[in-house]
Each structure stands twice: as C-alpha cells, then as structure tokens.
Amino acid sequence: MEIKGKIISGMGKGTYFMSQEIYIKQFQEKLHFKPYVGTLNIKLEKNRMNTLINISQEKFGLIEGKGKFGDVKFIKAKLNHDVSGALVFPAKTEHTEDVLEFISNKNLRESLKLKDGDLVSVTID
Question: Is it true that domain 2-123 has CATH number 2.40.30.30?
C-alpha cells in the first residue's frame, strides 16, 4: 500500500518526545534502530486517510507510555521506497488526522534534501 503526501513543518514537539528515554528504548527494541530525534510530517493527499483505516490492527506495534507520556502506535513503513522507518501515531497529538509522522534513524530533511511542499510516498507492506 502506498500513500502520497507533502512535507510540512511541524510544531517541534516531535523532537521533545522522540528524545525521551521511555520512547527511544522501546523503539530500539521493537524497530531495531535508534530513531532520529524528530519526526517528518507528511500531509496526506485528499481522501487518503481511508487507506490507513483499512490496515489490520495486527500490523501495528505499541510503544507504551508512562506518566505524562502517552502510548504510541506504530507501523513499519518505507519513505520513497528507500528509507526504512515507521509511521507513528501518538495517543496525544495536536496534528489533524490527515498529517502523518514518519521516523527513521536519520534526519530525513537533511539526508534526502527535503523541504516543505516536496511530494513523498510512504509504503506499508
């Protein structure tokens, strides 16, 4: 399944949450990489949210929050058919449902020279 969208700037909160040990440790255990401190925000094309709704819940993993840090669902994915990572779905978020957050082990804006408005694709097996 492939989902397309445009890169947008976030609120900077992903950096804070992705730097928390509670999340880092579990992502390393479950995804086998240490995530870059931050998320790549992707605004979906119109009517693409329905695609995600149809994914079996069994494909999602769970990062368990603690205290003021909420749970985070995730699903393994690839960005532009090349970069392995995951889509993350925090229980607590200020994003609208048409904005996805992608994580990997590198700063994707730098390594792929991405900027706001660039089109990207996310592939989920």
Answer: yes
Q: Is the dihedral of CA 96, 99, 101, 106 positive or negative?
A: negative
Q: What is the domain partition of the chain in residue ranges?
A: 2-123
- Give the whole-angstrom CA distance, residue 31 versus residue 78: 13
Q: What is the 3-state secondary structure (H, E, C) of the chain?
A: CEEEEEEECCCCHHHHHHCCHHHHHHHHHHHCCCCCCCCEEEEECCCCHHHHHCCCHHHCEEECCECCECCEEEEEEEECCCEEEEEEEECCCCCCCCEEEEECCCCHHHHCCCCCCCEEEEECC
**Per-residue pLDDT at 101:** 92
Residue of higher predicted confidence among 19 and 39: 39
What are the tens digits of pLDDT across the range 64-94? 888 888 889 999 999 999 999 999 988 766 6
Query: What is the pTM assigned to this prediction?
Result: 0.88
